[in-house]
Protein: 1,4-alpha-glucan branching enzyme GlgB
Organism: Kaistia terrae
Amino acid sequence: MTGWRASVSDVEALIAARHGDPFALLGPHETDDGLAIRAFVPHAETVAVEDLDGNRVAPLERRPGTDFFEGLIPGHKKRFGYRLRAENPGGGWTFHDPYSFAGVLGATDDYLLVEGTHRQLYEKLGAHLLHHEGVDGVHFAVWAPDALRVSVVGNFNGWDGRRHQMRKRVDSGLWELFAPGFGEGEIYKYEIVAADGIVQPLKADPVGFAGELRPSTASVVARTDNFTWNDDAFLRQRGEGQARRQPMSIYEVHLGSWQRGEGNSFLSYDELADRLIPYAVELGFTHLELLPVSEHPLDDSWGYQPIGLFAPTRRHGEPAGFARFVDRAHQAGLGIILDWVPAHFPTDRHGLAHFDGKPLYEHADPRRGFHPDWNTAIYDFGRKEVSNFLAASALYWLDRFHVDGLRVDAVASMLYLDYSRKDGEWLPNPDGSNDNKDAVAFLSRVNQLCYGEHPGTVTIAEESTSWPGVSQPVHEGGLGFGFKWNMGWMNDTLDYMSLEPIHRRYHHDKLTFGLLYAFSENFVLPLSHDEVVHGKRSILGRMPGDRWQQFANVRAYYGYMWGHPGKKLLFMGQEFGQQKEWNFNQSLDWHLVEDPMHAGLKDFVRDLNRAYRGHAGLHARDCEGEGFRWVVADDKDQSVFAFLRFGGPDDKPILVVSNFTPVIRDGYRVGLPETGRWREILNSDASVYGGSGVGNLGAVEATEVPAHGFPASAAIVLPPLSTVFFEYEP
């Protein structure tokens, strides 16, 4: 400095966007001579200081050959509120100087971020509409500890990184700037200069609350803290009882392809609420599980390679639209589960990869930081700021959008250091073990936070190995998830059902083996999107036989599934017998529902859900061995399975019998715990579903004829390729 004037070197550095501390140069500065005010205003010929009432205070002098202006106000020793008035031949404009405002973040924010315990990080980072020091604007904050410079850029400043350079908080690596006059809808990115002086590709906001519609990639200023909610009654009820003892029948949906609009366009969140919510409710599902709605650049990823972990995808509208969707689901009694992806992220230039010029969010060693299956980056779960960022994302969806649960994708890839890697391609622990201790600690903490901060919500793990205690509490040595997908059950049963009935006798154990471990975890039985793509065919397409037999097989299979212990999940389209594989780029084949066989299957799924929800014996002990007992487990020659389901002591037991051959078995005797009337409550072969109409005339009578280790038994009719449910009526 030369007195109150800026030095030539400072001005040159600022104009070149390489000044180390623009706040030390720009804005108001108290000097012995008075208050010096400096500003960088491209396109201006003159700049003057005005008070907040619009009165001219003093002109600023333009440094020759630059857009840098400075001036001294001798009568002012202290800072005061002011605006700048700029003019050029095209006219004039007035604006508040962003460098005249104090910072918003505090030492506590620095400390909690570095410690990794900032539970509501999304209330500090990102872009927040704020009334600060008497002025409305947007506060921007981003974490980039190794950057030399970070600027907010957008249409508002011609994407000029010199205009809104941010203040660095040295203790945490956070950068912040209050931008007066900014409002909702502003499009922005961060321009970052790495430690080596190289300007990085423009970055979207890691904690941005909205994004542009792809292929555009900028973040958008949006509010997510002011939604009007009408779901108090639902949230109160959600917190009652234990989730594992409540019915949970999940309809898994990809919002982009459940239905499409005119011209194959995406439906809006409101249009989806109009159509999808009543449909799921009518079919009796308890929850919708949505494939990731976090903003993602590539449709082909189905959302599983997200860029914006805090932004509902723009494909269907603004964040407020997604909030309305959740609210309307809750008012209809339907829970919402989101697929959430903390395992990895894509390496798109505008995303998290090498965010401040070198690995920041990803692990620096590619043996831990690069995923060979998906060509994505793996988060550095051991870095506290990164785990804090991810945990905040989980809490954000539960808090701001009232979401009822998170299904965590690709958990197995997080738990094992050698997941999908050959010898020499992975970095073991010092003791040679292959468990990712940082990921284990992260997942445990996220589960504790979700259940602690939002009682009544659930977390579900997609975990495909035998890792112990996935759904056990953290304090008992588990990972703390509420539920785990039962991938083994899914693979075994689909393999069995794809066989011609004559060959099923040789693979009988594929349907019985799952009961050996059915209560080792709180399981969800998933027939998910992964099972109807990449050449696997649809569920209906996997079934052997002619058309009638294919539908009969599906109905019998679903009956076995809904009777089997475990919560239920069915991917969209499989409820009515989608024939083709799922195509993420077009609507389901809704015209099929006009066909009686497809309509019959849909009606059967509806009635399965009604039976499952209406009979405690079918859901209350889904995760407890006391809720299940085999009756017939070894009749491989006839491919018959029979078992009992129990609820509480006051609930009626349910008998489930499946016949996986196309042969009618008349007078098939099954053991029962009680004599008396057992009412047929559901029959997959009923003519109303497209079956042959074979059944038990409403009920069977159990007499004191011991069988299968029980004191009583009944002779029943087993329809071909069927599952039949009976309820005891004392």
